[in-house]
Amino acid sequence: METTANPPAPIIAVPSLEDHISRLLEREPHRAFSVEDLLTLLKLQSPKDPQKQAQAVEQVTSNLRRLVEDGQITEVAPGLFKCRLFFELEKSIEHAYIGGMGNNRYRFRSPVFRLNIGVLSIYFIHDAKKGEWFQTVRDTTIGRDYGLVRRLRDGTYLFGSRPPAAGEENYVQIAGRYIEKKHLTITISGDEIGIEDHNTPNGTRIDLLTKDGLARYQQAARAFLKAAEPEDRKDPVKRGRYVLEQLLHQHQNYETTFFGAVLDWLLITG
Asked: Please, what is the average pLDDT of the chain?
């Protein structure tokens, strides 16, 4: 009687250290982890064996660097890492929350980004020709938009609701509900931005266009500028109608306010 061979046992993939690290960061998406935090959570601490401790640090650090290169996580400050969050499937807009009960620092590169503090949304647009950033502010409580007179150059700036003190040149006053007297600090170096929330109760929300998202929004914005009459290029109704048509006819979803910010960026940069 012939015997049949047993089918081979299925191969069960063993999660790698990189997978374990990625899952830990995804579990608390608004928290920033240091290498030491991860060593503790992964139970890789070896305080009594300096050689093993050094090897574990090197191993975790190299895995973190790979995850950064793959675009899964970001280094929000030197030695602090958190997972990346996106608003939509296209991953055009990245989102971060700092302050409140979580991490209070974030850094990134983008020529267009939005800060949500209190009831205000502040859009920052980089004018690379002049080496300046200009800001437009949207007050959701009264439906009013306005631009800040002051443009920001490379440096460190404190944003808050209190009046500026005498000689306080790098202070920017922003009035609005739920904005603290000393709310956040922004450090600008070209198109690299570092933001620190001063542990405010309501925190700070940051939205920025990813590299692929910027290219996607640029393409749509250039098509709009090509088709629109010069006098219609800044018309918010025409801009909004174009975004709606893209959704209805091309099934392409764009956030109207970010689309407008990219349009403004293209208009000033040429």
From this structure: 89
